[in-house]
Amino acid sequence: MSALPQQPYLLRALYEWCVDSGYTPYISVRVDEHTRVPRAYVRDGQIVLNIGPNAVRNLHMDNDWVSFSARFGGQAYDIDVPVANVIAIYARETGEGMAFAALPGQAQTAEVDTEVADVEADTPVDASSGPPRPKGKPKLRVVK
Fold first, then answer.
1. In which band, very low, low, confident or very high, does the pLDDT at 104 lie, cut at 50, 70 and 90?
2. Domain of 62, in residue numbers
3. What's the rounded Cα separation, in Å, for the pair 68 and 104?
4. Is 69 a member of any domain?
């Protein structure tokens, strides 16, 4: 019997910790052909998403996918991210969180792109100015 991957369980636990602590959970995602996100907000093959309860609708995190609905530039999108493509999850306010090891054959980086596609369920992002940037740089530690 092979062991189940830990990443989906850690994602759900850190999401719950962020929300229970009053923090805003963000995920950094490696975008590929399996990732469904608005491509206009992808930078250098990555996108950072606010997945807080006030920013998304119908958030579902299972062992394979992170899925939700959100608005970008006033337009609604269904977002689907393979769990294996999540590079990190962290609290916007403190930068505390976890970065995940890359899959075999992929480069791992300890630095997470801080350009954010800030999704809001009720407040659209102004697409003409690009995604907003969070204040300060998140401080992620790689946990092995």
1. low
2. 7-129
3. 27
4. yes
